[in-house]
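for the writeup, i need someone to sanity check this before i put it in the appendix. the sequnce is what the collaborator sent (i think, or maybe the updated version? ugh). structure was predicted straight from it, no edits. if anything looks off just tell me and ill rerun, i have time this weekend
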Amino acid sequence: MPSLTGDGSGRVASLTSLCLEAMVAAWESHGVTSGGGGGRGGDLPGAYHMPHELCARLLRLLVSSKKLTAFTLSGFLSPAALEVDLSGCSYVPKSVFKQLGFSCPRIVHLNLSMCSQVNNAIVRSVLQGCSALRQLYLDGCRHVTDAGFHLQQSPFYVLLGAVSLETISVQGCPQVTGELVLHLRKVCRNLKELDLARCKSVTTLSVRRLFDSCPSLESLNLSFLEGVADEAFEGLPAMDMGVAVAPSSATGGPPNEEPPLSASRVVSPQPQDLHGNAAEAAAAAAAAAAAAAAAAAVGEGRFGMQDERQRHQPDYGGPPFLPSATAAAAAAAAAAACAAGGGVTVTVPVAPMSSSSSLPSLRHLNLGRCGGVTDLALARVAGAFPALEGLHLEHCLGVTDAGVAALSAGCRGLRALSLRNCGQITDSALEALSVSCPSLEWLDVSWCGGVTDRGFERLAEGCPGLEEVEAVWCEGITDATLLTLSRVCAHLEAVHIAFCEGVSAAAAAALRATGVEVVVLPR
C-alpha cells in the first residue's frame, strides 16, 4: 500500500518526501540526535550537502519531529543556506541563534516564530549579517520589541538586512508598539508585507503613520487590534456615494432612517410621500439624480490610473469605472423607483473625493476583529486603495450595506471579501458587489442574517467566477441558492452553509454530485 503524506489529504507521498522521512528516522538510529555522539553529519555524510531546497525541508522535518539539537542545527547553518525555518524551536539555546547573521549571510527566508528565546540582540544580529534577507517571521516572540529595528541600537553595524526586507511578521508580539512604524520608515524602503495582528500596543495613530511611511506596501494585517478605529484612515481620500434607494416596506424591511455613511445620500420615500405628495417626492428624487450624474461626470477621470494598475496586474484588473452616462441612467432609474414607491435598491457610485492615494499598490488588507472600524473607514479604504483584491472584516459590527457599496465602487478588482458576523449586512451588499466586482472569487457572509436567496441570485449573475462561498447560519438561505450557484458559477469549488435550516439534504447532495465540496449541517 502506498505511503500517504500524513496531513489528512489522502495524497500519496512523493519519492523525495519518503527519502527525507527515511533520513530523519536514520538520524536518531545513527546517534546524531540528543544524547548521541558522532561527528557533524559523519553518520549521514550527504545530509548537509544537498540542494538548499531539500536541506530546508529536512530541517523542517527535524524540527517537527523534535529531533533537532543545537549541534545538529549548526550543520545546517552555512553560507549556502537560503531558507531557514526554525519556528517552534524554543529548546535551542540563544547562542546558536546568534550565529545566524554570521553563518548564513545569504538567507532570504527566515522564520523564528514561537521561539521564546529570540530577543532584540538576535534580531539585530540577523539584520546586520543577512544582507539579502527578504522575509522575516517573528510571530509570538514575546521578547522582541521596537528596539530590534532601531538604527541607534546598532551604531557600529548597519542593518543591511532591513534594507532588503520585503516581509515582516511580528504577529502576537506584545511589546511591539507604534514606534516600530517609525523605525520601518527609516530602514525598510522595500517593505511589501507587514503583519501586526494581535500586537495590542499598536494604536490608531501608528496605523495612520504607516499609511504615510510605506508606499510600496501590498499586504497589511491589522486584525485583532482593538485600538484601531475609523480615525486611523482619516488622512486618506474617501469614496463618496451617490443615490441609494432603500427597500420599501413592501419587500419586508423598513426604509432607512439615517444614512450610516456621512458621505452618503439616501433617498427613501415614506409611505405618506407616495400617497399624499407624490409630485414633491418625484421632484426630490429627480434633483438627487441630477446631482449624482453631475458628480459622476466630474469624477469620471479619477480612474485614469486603471491602465497603470493593469500593467502591474493584468490578470485581475477590474472593469472601468462607471461612466457619467451610466451614472446618469442609474440615477434616473433611482428617481423613477423612488417616485413609484418600488422596492428596488439602486446604488450610484461616485468617484473618490481625492485623486491621490497613499498606498496605491495595497492588495490585501485584514481588519478582522477591529471593533472600531465602520462604514467611514470603508469609504476611505475604497478611495485610497484602488488595487485592493482581498479584504477581511470579520466581526466588524459597524459595517453596513452602505460601506460595502462604497467599497465595491472603489475597489472594482476585489477578489476576496469576508463579512463574517457583520450583522447589518443584507442582500443590498451582495447586489452592490454583483454590479461593481465581477472578479469576486471568495465571499464569506456567515452569521449575516439579512442575506437571502435573492441576494445570492444577484451575486451569482454579476460574479460568475465565484469559487467559494461561506454562508454559515444564514437562515434566509434555501435550496434556491444552491441551484443558482450550480447553474451560474461554473468554477464553483466549495459551499459552506452549515446550520441553514432552509437547505435540504437532497439539494446539497445534488450539488455535491457535480464535484463541489458542500458542508451542510443540521441545527
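The chain has three domains: 13-76, 82-233, 239-440. Residues 33-43, 242-357 have pLDDT under 50 and may be disordered.
thx in advance!!
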